[in-house]
């Protein structure tokens, strides 16, 4: 743990223009991934197998897609707690659209659009109402989940469209489930958006100094809404893909995403105070969470103990990344 | 106590309550206080007057333990006084009323009055004895002579009542509960936010408290200072220049002592100041107002002109700058900029039309210290830097722009990738200016553009302002630095309590003096708002 503690000030201090992607502090989470790989390989025989890596990438796919938009939201200094609920509602809508409309594969853009609208709701209430995003998305988390469970009537509903599952569990690349493939594509696109477009730049500026950005004429409110919409769109896509992967949408869809998505983003190295980090780091965070989940399962650690471990990992990650000397009041 | 009880004169009555010896404090290369020596007699009101930046706030920070002096010593009650932090100062009997109120709004008044003394009213360490607390608080309120129900919520009272509560706490809670016999209270511009009626109550309160301990004031209002002080010290550029008896001095003398530095015309490039032709106005402001900040402001800025705005800290000049830039929009009146229609502007449209705004608070509003020089320069850039509907970032162009301005303005940083936090104040301010220069602005609204900037960088910024006006850029200069205001401006508008009260021409061959400007900034003795102050001594007699 002392190595982690020593790395803390460097992470807080370093924010290099254009070299953000190869920041030295990136190596800490990468080191954790390598450590976990070695540890679980030694601890259990079944971990370091091609089959298991395929399984891990399938699990990590949904998480990665769902986290990417949330990374922008955290990067600009807000938080989106409703990602899991958007996935649940998106999943419920997916099976409904697949079973009761002739949309077929067009369900994918339809649910993505729905996610965008849900994000628009979050962003609009947050910016116009001047309510902390934490509260807004905690509220919509409950609203979206309630709507989804009403649609599902509390049951798991299977879809009946032959071949739809291949978008998630087929393998365009051998041994890599399509859901992981699409997640990596989405990750690459989002990384480019973050580092090469005005939208990405504004996310950093708003997170790093909202007042400064406003004073310079940056349309802060509009871009905050865009960030929540992007978070919703990606959660929507994640929803369709995980429905395709599981063959059904059930009441538990997306419930583990609330903690897992925040954990992956923060463990990856995007600061909760905003302005530092980025989606390129979220990939590493997702790997840490997915490997941890999978490895602990294989070791036979109970579901309940896993909850304890994961909670501790998140707190440790924030402890390491936070520059406590600059924080006077914590709420 | 019998009327005949013989109380021997305490030996402490000869030693002053507080004595400072050779107090010196510098921040970096700037000497803020330079060997300041003074004393505060017992049961007296002592006032420090001086210009902005004379060192008054730093002096208060030293006395209240918030910063430690580089050299010098202080004695309180004849004992060595060297507090580490405000908490210790408070325990030793020095309390301070801060400019911004420090009461908790949502709790009853008595809880605020006894804040920090709850331990005296507990049973078994935790159970608060509410009745005893209320009784103690009522004792304080009664001693202060203010009309407040201690059981009511603090936020229910208006600003001036809350200030009275705060002063009562600072002065009396220490003596009633803290075991301090003679409290020493520091008051920083206590009346700046009070209206005339409240001032009356304030002076009564202060006079009552004077019977218990001593008060140290900082104030800009010289009439008020003369009316209530027993002793006046004048601070100028960190040095004590006078110790005066208010009975034998007047406002004019005080002004003269506060200001009167030499102005080097070269430093402000005054010879480059050109007469402004009577062309169409670049910026036309009509009856602009924002409640609580400024009202009925009408002014014009023509191309190539530097219009200075001066006034005391609470005169509303910074709020006016924010409204003209559209950062905190006005509520009434109109602004027309370039050829646009008269409107209440917002920052986005102003920036689009060619306005640049440099706020006074550089580190929280002007720039993002954690980000690079290049990012901070390109902060206000739009389509030129982010191309196409996707807003594709043109990295090379950004780097080239940053590098060019860093060179032209001699921003001394290794690379455009350097984090701004590591730059000096002067270089940081140049980065903020470069942000607007790279957009070819038509008008710059500058709020204290050289605050926290060293002398060399100041001169460079002044030269830059002249370069810009040569090219026909209009400049609205809001500043607390009188010499800068005089040296740079073509015309100077003086604000007082939210209104423009005077316009002073400042051509290169006939610049006004600091003394003249200060006279305009300070509320005139004859104005109705001030007359109440003059009546105070009579009502107290």
Automatic annotation (TrEMBL), chain A:
Q: Keywords on this record?
A: Cell membrane, Membrane, Transmembrane, Transmembrane helix
One GO CC term of this entry? plasma membrane
- Signal peptide location: none
Fetch the InterPro entries from UniProt.
ABC_transp_permease
Q: Name one Pfam family in it.
A: BPD_transp_2
Q: Report the principal subcellular site.
A: membrane
A GO molecular function annotation here is: transmembrane transporter activity
Q: What is this protein's name? A: Monosaccharide ABC transporter membrane protein, CUT2 family
From TrEMBL, chain B:
What SMART domains does the record point to? AAA
What PROSITE patterns does UniProt report for this protein, alphabetically?
Answer: ABC_TRANSPORTER_1, ABC_TRANSPORTER_2
Q: Does the keyword Nucleotide-binding apply?
A: yes
The record's Pfam families line, in alphabetical order, gives: ABC_tran
Q: Coiled-coil regions in this chain? A: none
Domain ABC transporter residue range list? 18-522
Signal peptide location: none
Protein's name in the database = Monosaccharide ABC transporter ATP-binding protein, CUT2 family
């Amino acid at each position: 743990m002392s190595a982690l503690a020593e790395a803390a000030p460097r992470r807080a201090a370093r924010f290099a223009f254009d070299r953000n992607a190869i920041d030295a502090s990136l190596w800490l989470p990468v080191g954790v991934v390598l450590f976990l790989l070695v540890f679980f390989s030694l601890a259990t025989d079944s971990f370091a197998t091609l089959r298991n890596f395929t399984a891990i990438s399938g699990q990590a796919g949904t998480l990665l897609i769902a986290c990417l938009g949330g990374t922008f939201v955290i990067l600009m200094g807000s938080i989106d707690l409703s990602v899991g609920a958007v996935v649940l509602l998106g999943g419920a809508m997916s099976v409904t659209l697949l079973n009761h409309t002739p949309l077929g594969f067009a369900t994918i853009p339809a649910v993505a659009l729905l996610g965008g609208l849900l994000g628009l709701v979050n962003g609009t209430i947050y910016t116009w109402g001047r309510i902390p995003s934490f509260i807004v998305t905690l509220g919509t988390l409950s609203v979206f989940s309630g709507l989804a469970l009403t649609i599902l009537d509390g049951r798991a509903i299977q879809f009946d469209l032959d071949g739809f599952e291949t978008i998630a569990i087929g393998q365009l690349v051998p041994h890599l489930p399509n859901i992981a493939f699409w997640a990596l594509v989405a990750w690459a696109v989002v990384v480019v958006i973050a580092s090469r477009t005005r939208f990405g730049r504004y996310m950093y500026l708003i997170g790093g100094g909202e007042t400064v950005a406003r004073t310079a004429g940056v349309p802060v409110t509009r871009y905050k809404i865009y960030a929540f919409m992007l978070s919703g769109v990606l959660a929507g896509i994640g929803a369709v893909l995980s429905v395709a992967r599981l063959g059904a949408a059930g009441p538990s869809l997306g419930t583990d995403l609330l903690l897992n998505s925040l954990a992956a983003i923060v463990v990856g190295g995007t600061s909760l105070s905003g302005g530092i980090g980025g989606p390129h780091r979220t990939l590493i965070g997702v790997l840490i969470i997915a490997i941890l989940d999978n490895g602990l399962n294989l070791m036979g650690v109970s579901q309940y103990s896993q909850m304890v471990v994961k909670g501790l990992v998140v707190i440790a990650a924030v402890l390491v990344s936070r520059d406590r000397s600059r924080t006077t009041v914590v709420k | 106590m019998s009327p005949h009880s013989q109380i021997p004169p305490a030996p402490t009555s000869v030693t002053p309550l507080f004595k400072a010896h050779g107090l010196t404090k510098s921040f970096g290369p700037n000497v803020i206080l330079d060997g300041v020596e003074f004393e505060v007699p017992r049961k007296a009101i002592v006032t420090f007057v001086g210009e902005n930046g004379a060192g008054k706030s730093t002096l208060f920070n030293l006395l209240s333990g918030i910063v430690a002096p580089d050299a010098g010593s202080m004695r309180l009650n004849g004992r060595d006084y060297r507090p580490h932090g405000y908490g210790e100062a408070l325990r030793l009997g020095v309390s301070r009323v801060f400019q911004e109120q420090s009461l908790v709004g949502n709790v009853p008044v008595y809880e605020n009055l006894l804040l920090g003394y709850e331990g005296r009213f507990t049973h078994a360490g935790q159970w608060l004895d509410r009745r005893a607390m209320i009784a103690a608080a009522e004792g304080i309120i009664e001693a202060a002579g203010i009309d407040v129900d201690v059981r009511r919520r603090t936020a229910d009272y208006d600003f001036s009542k809350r200030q009275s509560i705060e002063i009562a706490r600072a002065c009396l809670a220490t003596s009633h509960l803290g075991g301090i016999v003679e409290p020493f209270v520091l008051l920083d511009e206590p009346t700046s936010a009070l209206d005339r009626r409240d001032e009356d109550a304030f002076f009564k309160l202060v006079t009552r408290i004077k019977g218990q301990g001593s008060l140290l004031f900082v104030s800009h209002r010289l009439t008020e200072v003369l009316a209530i002080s027993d002793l006046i010290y004048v601070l100028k550029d960190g040095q004590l220049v006078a110790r005066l008896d208010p009975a034998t001095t007047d406002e004019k003398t005080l002004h003269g002592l506060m200001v009167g530095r030499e102005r080097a015309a070269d430093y402000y490039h005054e010879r480059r100041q050109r007469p402004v032709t009577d062309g169409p106005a670049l910026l036309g402001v009509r009856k602009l107002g924002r409640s609580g900040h400024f009202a009925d402001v009408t002014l014009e800025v023509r191309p190539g002109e530097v219009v200075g705005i001066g006034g005391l800290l609470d005169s509303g000049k910074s709020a006016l700058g924010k409204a003209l830039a559209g950062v905190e929009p006005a509520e009434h009146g109109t602004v027309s900029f370039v050829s646009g229609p008269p409107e209440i502007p917002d920052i986005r449209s102003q920036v689009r039309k060619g306005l640049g705004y440099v706020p006074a608070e550089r580190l929280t509003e002007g720039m993002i210290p954690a980000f690079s020089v290049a990012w901070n320069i390109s902060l206000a850039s739009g389509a030129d830097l982010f191309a196409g509907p996707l807003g594709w970032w043109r990295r090379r162009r950004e780097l080239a722009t940053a590098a060019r301005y860093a060179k032209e303005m001699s921003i001394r940083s290794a690379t455009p990738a350097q984090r701004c936090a590591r730059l000096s104040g002067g270089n940081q301010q140049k980065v903020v200016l470069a942000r607007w220069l790279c957009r070819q602005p038509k008008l710059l609204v500058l709020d204290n553009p050289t605050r926290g900037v060293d002398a060399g960088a100041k001169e460079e910024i002044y030269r830059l302002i002249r370069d810009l006006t040569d090219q026909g850029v209009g400049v609205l200069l809001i500043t607390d630095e009188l010499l800068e205001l005089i040296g740079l401006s073509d015309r100077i508008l003086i604000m007082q309590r939210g209104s423009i009260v005077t316009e002073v021409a400042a051509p290169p061959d006939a610049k006004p003096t600091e003394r003249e400007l200060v006279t305009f900034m300070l509320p005139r003795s004859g104005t109705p708002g001030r007359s109440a102050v003059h009546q105070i001594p009579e009502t107290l007699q």
